[in-house]
Structures are given as C-alpha cells and as structure tokens.
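I am still getting used to backbone structure tokens and would like to learn alongside you. Label the sequence line and the structure token line clearly, so we can match residues to local backbone shapes. Would you write everything just below, so we can both look at the same thing?
***
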Amino acid sequence: MRRLHEWYLQACRNCDRYLTVAVRDEHYFRGKEEVNLEFEELFQLFNQDALDKSVISCYCLFHFIILIIELNNGVVLVMDSKRKEHGEWANMTALLQRAWKWFINTVPDKLRMELTFKDRLQKLITQQKMSAGGRKTACVTGGNGYIASALIKMLLHKGYSVKTTVRDPDDMEKNSHLIDLQSLGPLEIFRAELDIDGSFDEAVAGCHYAFLVAAPMNLNPENPEKDVVEPAVRGTLNVMKSCVRAGSVKRVILTSSIAAVSSRPLQGDGHVLDEESWSDVEFLRAFVKSGAWAYPVSKVLLEKEACRFALENGISLVTLCPVVTVGAAPTPKVQTSIPIILSLLSGDEAMIETMKQIEMATGSIPMVHVDDLCRAEIFVAEEESARGRYICCSLNTTAKEIARFLAVTYPQYNVNIDRVADLGDRPRICVSSAKLIGEGFEYRYKTLEQIYDDVVDYAKATGILPA
C-alpha cells in the first residue's frame, strides 16, 4: 500500500491525469477492455479509505461503478467512485449477480453461508443506503390531508426523518395529529402555499424524496380553470422547482388520481385500463355538466406538465394514480370516500347516490386501502428501477357486490340491496395494477372482507357508524 501511495504521488507530480487499466472479462463482464481511471476519482477512493480499509476484502471496479463488500457485517454497497448513488442502471442487479458469483468463489468457506446473494443482496443494499448517511429525509406536502397524514406516519415508522407542509401550522384543528405524530420520530412542520413560488424551498431542502400529495380539491368550483386547474398545475410545478433548487432530491413521487385515467367515454363492457390510458380532456370540458370536469382535467394536465418539467430539469419522477382510497388515517378530518363506501351501512342517501354515480361514470368501484397506497408510495420511491405512472388498485368491484357482502357480513345494519338493484353485477371497466405488482409490490388488503374489517372499525371510532 505504501508503494502504491508513493506511485500515486509521483504520478500527480508528473501531471498525469489518468491511469489506463486493462480489465479482464471476469472482472468487467463485457469482454476485454481498457478503462481510463482519472486520478481525481482515485483520490476520492483514497480520501474515503476505500483502498486501505481492512474490513473491505474486495472491491470490483467496472465503468465508474464500485461494488464494496464488507465481510465483517455482510454489507453490500453500490456507488460510483465519487460516492454518489446511481439510479440509471436498470440491469444493475443482473450485473451484480455476475460480480457476486465471481466474488463468492474467492471467499473462505466459513463466510459463504453469510453472504447469499439471492435472498439478501437487495435488502442489504437498502439497509446500507439508509445507514450510510443516517436517516433518509422525505418531504410530504399537504400534511393535514388524509393520504399525506397516513404516509407521514408510515415513513416515521420506517425510520425516515419527515418534513411536511401545511398552509397554517398554527391551526390546531387541522394539524393536531401532526403534533401527535412527532412522538414517532423527527417530524418538522413548515408553512407553504402551492400558489407561492419558492414557498416549499425550506421544506424540501436536504430531502432525499419529495412526495407531492397536496392539491386543490373543489368538485363544484365557480370558475373551474381559475379555481382548480391552474392552481393544481402551478402548485405542482412550484414544488418541483423547489426540488431542483434543493439539489438533494433523488426522486419526486407525484400522487395523481384514477380520475386522470378513467374519465373517458367507453362503450360496452370488458374494458381494462392501465397506465397508458388518459382521461379525455376535450370530452370532459365539452360534455360534463357544471364544474365537475375540473378535477380530472387538472390531474391530467398537472401530470403532463410535471413530466415535461422533470425531463427538462433531469428530475426522477414517478407518478401514482390511486383509486377510491379507504382506511384509517391520523388526520381528524374523515376522507369523503369513507362515508361513500359505508353509505349502505349508514343509510346516508346522499352518499349512496354518490357511490352509484361513481360506478355509472367509471364502470366500477375500484378500491385501495390507504396503508397499501402508502406502502406503494414508498416502494416506488425506493425502487431505483421505478419509472413513469403506476395505477394503485387492489380491488375492482361494484355497488351491488358491496351491498350483498355487507348484508351478509353486517346484518345488524339492515342493508337495503334494492337501493343499487339498477346497477350491474360485474364491473364494466376494470383498472389494472399489473405494472406495480409486476415490479414486486404486493397488496395486503385484496378482498372486501379485509378492507371493510378495518374501515368499519375506523368508522365506529370516528362516529360515522354507531359503536
């Protein structure tokens, strides 16, 4: 090591800029090749004690990527020579498998049982990333909202530091749950307005992930463009500009809605909508009465503007489109979707009518539990290969199917099945979450029984249903 260091110092005195290394196929896995290793990068390795650290038994250099294996604690860390994490290597796992296969044959037999690639590598990589710089930090906008509050709670449980934004931090009627959540871990509350450029700078600064959950919500606006569409697009871009200025944000996770997917004229039945489906903006503006069209239009336009901005500014953006979201959340304000799916139990005629309108407009009642949605948000944030849009839906059902299930499961509520007798037995349109599932995500709430067991308990606790 001393002789290597002396050579390095002499090379620097000679003003040499790089070292040409002949790399064999068994090390590089792409055939024989020469790699130019800049001394600046080699200096970074010396600076980080990567070449003389006794616990490091092996490092493999291949095209700016270093695989470091620490035998003492079985940690695998993937980074580049300047210690920056790489997110653009879609085939990194396959490449590492080959590197691991070569390496594992060189370690003593007594260590091989501890270093099993297939079952442990991805977990170890994630753990090392979390421990390398301490806690990861996430910003969640709109912390007094239903989904955002549940997401904050889950992030804290997973060991994140969380920064959230609200319009008025002093409004304890809306924000008391955030004070309670601070007992779970580091949670900071910031004042921010979607309409004010730079308003999110402080909240986003130093964050690894930014979860954009806050959005204008007005289903009957007087001026749809001014009250909903324009603020939604402008607010989304304002937060993303703050992410660019922060310089630390590894990924932005945008929470959109199934309204950006399914609001389109479809004749007949048997339709399956996936991430390639977009709501028809022109149709909505032309044929939907009152200002109800503003919400789905705003979701389509903010998604597309966010994608454009991300592409122009080099931001890693992933979008989730959740369906009707239900389940318990910390916020004291109950999500509108909860009274809707419980309307057949509560007997609330207005909510029953709303549920029927949802099915007539979308062809089904697609649902997801808020816990599954939050898990999906974190999954696509942490999964480096995640790209584009993801529909988040664990169950496609109908009002009639729900009514029959509730009548049998909760006979004490005297469910009136006839209230939905004019609707179909099966979903006319289904939304597919195959992309999310195909990339390794697994839903925990997949049946009406699993979903309603939790929601009914929550409804009793909040007074929607009698205890």
User: Anything to note?
Assistant: The chain has two domains: 2-132, 137-462.
